[in-house]
């Protein structure tokens, strides 16, 4: 479903600030794969997300989604195939617009935007049914401005919007990191539910090691622009945080360093 | 109704069309577009020059609208494709248009004396209504444009344009080319501004190369005054407020003239109105905040005195 071939990205090439963000990375995801990614600061996790979504273009290598090479497509042209939820709960929705208008924006993602009304009675029913799956009561607040919602509610809505048109690839970029533990837990459950129900091919970056172990069928650890550990489903079941940290130390000869990593 | 009052409402409706354009860029797209000063005069120049060349007033006015669309798109292209800062791309268009407007008119001022204009035609057609015919026609034109605007901003394309002004990163991840939405938004905005310019030239009976100077601030004043008085809870409400704001602005100007101010003082007055409208809400909010805290402090002090008394009694 998603294929990254030999991706190389360098920032500020030729200056003292030169930094290789991704060092010939290869990654293949099968349809329905749910891969969690962990890694220390500056490991290249976010760069990887940006390469897939088209925000950044690789200096070398190719990106393929569902058999189509998308290297030359700008972000907005890849977007029909990619759902994305950002870390910042404010980033995934338009605050000055209503809940139903936001959903209408998501609804039109894989279609041509027309001069037809964005929110019709028929769509409103569809939005309401869909919002009910969140169990947040948002279905009764369709015409409320999204800016009035709490961070957790906004992130739940972002997740719903990102998956509304069943994208080929879902990118979750630390989407629970900015929430308090209870809300983060709720969004994590929702993620599992939606990804499971729609069988979405998903890539999730997280700083929470337990979350990385609990979710998904495959785990990847990144460091200094490389994938240093790729744990398949069977092995992942028996993995613990201690063994993960020990593995890191063995591979890199140094301790796992991340000021944001949540170890338990 | 006094002539001055009638006149200020009439011209208010004409300026409202321009203010709706400013609302589109300033509020919807969050793009401070200074092209307006140029495109208003461009509208006037095209309208007046075509009418004096013998074209039908209606055709001349529509042409002004179309040229305005092109001019706005140019600013949009400078900003999105040329990656020029929003303010600067507007200023560049504005300054370029000054020369272009002079070229269109061939001189600094094109009088429409004795020419058939849209308004002489309307007055002839609605002569039964006397003095109010023109007012009615202008109100209908402004309201029709408002309703088209409201409708457009609720279409799928319109929603994408609003989201572009609200959260660009988000709407790009929902497959919208924000370059296009910015260009479309600026185009429509300047189309309305040029239309307003063409109407105003016909209303005042001449086009002048300097008729656009300060238009952006008049547009802003209309938007801010309107929103403050009539509210901006929804698009429908806000566009209505913008029309109201434009009319009130013209009334204030008429009033100032009667008090004895000079027409040349109007730009200073407009600037002062906008400054006051921008600062007043903040001053009033901080005043209320101080008052609220003072009350709290006083209550808390009384409560503490009372509690100390209680403690003494028990001791």
From TrEMBL, chain A:
Pfam families: ABC_tran (PF00005)
GO terms assigned for molecular function: ATP binding; ATP hydrolysis activity
Any one GO cellular component localisation term in the record: plasma membrane
Highest taxon, organism lineage: Bacteria
Residue ranges constituting the ABC transporter domain according to the UniProt record: 2-249
Keyword Transmembrane helix attached: no
Annotated PROSITE patterns: ABC_TRANSPORTER_1 (PS00211), ABC_TRANSPORTER_2 (PS50893)
InterPro entries per the UniProt record, alphabetical: AAA+_ATPase, ABC_transporter-like_ATP-bd, ABC_transporter-like_CS, ABC_transporter_ATP-bind, P-loop_NTPase
SMART domains, sorted: AAA (SM00382)
Keywords, sorted A to Z: ATP-binding, Cell membrane, Membrane, Nucleotide-binding, Transport
Membrane topology note: Peripheral membrane protein
Subcellular location: Cell membrane
Keyword Cell inner membrane: no
The protein's name in its UniProt record: ABC transporter ATP-binding protein
From TrEMBL, chain B:
Annotated compartments: Cell membrane
Keywords of the record: Cell membrane, Membrane, Transmembrane, Transmembrane helix
CDD domains (UniProt xref): TM_PBP1_branched-chain-AA_like (cd06574)
Pfam families: BPD_transp_2
GO molecular function: transmembrane transporter activity
Membrane topology category: Multi-pass membrane protein
A cellular component term, taken from the record's GO annotations: plasma membrane
Signal peptide start-end: none
Protein name per the record: ABC transporter permease
Source taxonomy: Bacteria, Bacillati, Bacillota, Bacilli, Bacillales
